Structure formats: structure tokens, C-alpha cells
Amino acid sequence: MKIGIIGAGMIGGTLARRLVQLGHEVSIANSRGPETLTALASETGARAVTAAEAARSGEIVVVTMPEKAVNTLPSNLFADVPGEVIVVDTGNYYPARDGSIPPIEMGQPESGWVSDRIGRPVIKAFNNIFFKSLLEKGTPRGSEGRVAVPVAGDDADGKAKVMQLIEELGFDAVDAGGLDESWRQQPGTPCYTGDFTAPNLKRALASAERSRVPEYRRAADDAARAYWRG
User: Fold this and answer.
1) Rounded mean pLDDT of 1-19?
2) Element of type H or E holding 146
3) Which domains does the chain have, with CATH numbers?
4) DSSP E strand stretches across 113-206
5) Which conformational region is residue 6 in: left (phi greater than 0), alpha (psi within -120 to 50 degrees), or beta?
6) What does the pLDDT read at residue 6?
7) What are phi and psi of 21, to 5 degrees?
8) For FRET with 122, which of 51, 138, 163, 182 sits at 20 to 30 Å CA-CA?
9) Residue 188 pLDDT more than 70?
10) End-to-end Cα spacing for the chain
11) What is the pTM of this model?
12) pLDDT digits (tens, 9 = 90+) for 75-133
């Protein structure tokens, strides 16, 4: 499969590495230009391209960047990308890093905001798993303790393809509902970075309380500040 990745941070770089290992043709971009991705491309076997090229180079395109960076993407980035191309959003909102984004603060799920910004439906995935787990914890289907990853979205066919990709990567894919339900996998919620098995992930998703989203976000933001301070 041809896969474009826009964003070459921890998740983007890890996905590039793992997907190339699985035999997929990966094109990866960042905000600084393909010439800055020479080392990553050489290491992973992915092709370094511009963001515009990455958006047009895959059957699946993964947008994986801080929420504040989404506003820097060209408004027409996906304008002529065929409708059947699936766009995956892995982003998480941390006010300490991203500044205040009023629609999210007012209750819009992060990926709903991203979808509005880029003008395309998105599938929410890969946002609640730590990059080292994504790199190291994939196991064959049926393995005891296999880690599960939630997937939310409104396009059933697109969601099924993303779930299949997650299975290839070595994780159980759990249908987390429509995009409006993706708040259940946002930072600080019970399922966030928990490396749960599928049954436990389903319980964690179900236990999230919408009224506590601001509390979850504050806790995640505080933890992120401490992490970034080292």
C-alpha cells in the first residue's frame, strides 16, 4: 500500500519505520522540507517529500503533528486529493504546547477540529499510544497481552482499512465509534497511553466521562509540562 505521512516526529518517524518494514511504500514530509529528512529517509527506507506530495502520494495519508502546527498547513493541501484517500489524524491537544484553541476548549473533539481545518473527514488513530510502544510492542494476532489501539471515525470503509493496518502493525484494533466519540481517547482519559488489551481498552473507553474532559486535559497538560521540563 502507498502511505503518505505528514509530520516526522516520534509517531510519524515510528510509523514510517514500521510500515516500510511491512513492505508498504511510504512518503514522509515535515514542515522544514525534504532536505531535512535525509537521515530519516536513509534509516527507514521512506521517501522524503514535501507536504503537498505526501498528501497526494498515498491511499492513506497520516497527519501527525502538534495541533498548533495544523494551522500552518496550506488551506488547499487536500483540495485535489481524491475523495477515496483516507486521512488519519494522530494529533493531541496540549494547551501548554499548542496555546488555546477555543473550539476544542468549548467541547469539539480534537479530530473534529482538525477535520474542519483541513477540509477533509478524518479517522482518529495512533494518538493514545506512546511511540516506544508503537515501535516495540507489536505482536502476532492472538498473542497473550496484545496491546490494542482505538480507532474512531464516521467512514466505515476507511475505518476498516485503518484497523487492518493496525492489525498488520501488531496491535488489536478496537472500534471506538464515530468521530464525535473520539474525545474518549484524548489526553488524560482513562485509555490514554495505557497499553491495554482489547477488553480492557473497551472498558477504559466506556468509563470516560464527557463532563470530565477539562479535568482530563488539565492533568495531561500538567504531566506534559513536567515531561518537557525534563
Assistant:
1) 96
2) none
3) 66-229 (3.40.50.720)
4) 123-124, 148-151, 172-175
5) beta
6) 97
7) -60, -30
8) 138
9) yes
10) 38
11) 0.95
12) 899 999 999 999 999 999 999 999 999 999 999 999 999 999 999 999 999 999 999 99
Give 215: exposed, middle or buried? Use CB within 10 Å, 0-12, 13-18, 19+. Answer: exposed
Contacts of 28 (CB under 8 A, 6+ apart): 4, 5, 8, 12, 13, 16, 37, 40, 41, 44, 46, 47, 48, 49, 54
* Residue linked to cell 537521515: 39
CA distance 130 to 35: 27
CB 217: neighbour CB atoms within 10 A? 22
Compute the chain's Rg from CA coordinates: 16
Q: How are the residues of the chain apportioned to helix, strand and coil, as percentages rounded to the nearest 5?
A: 45, 15, 40
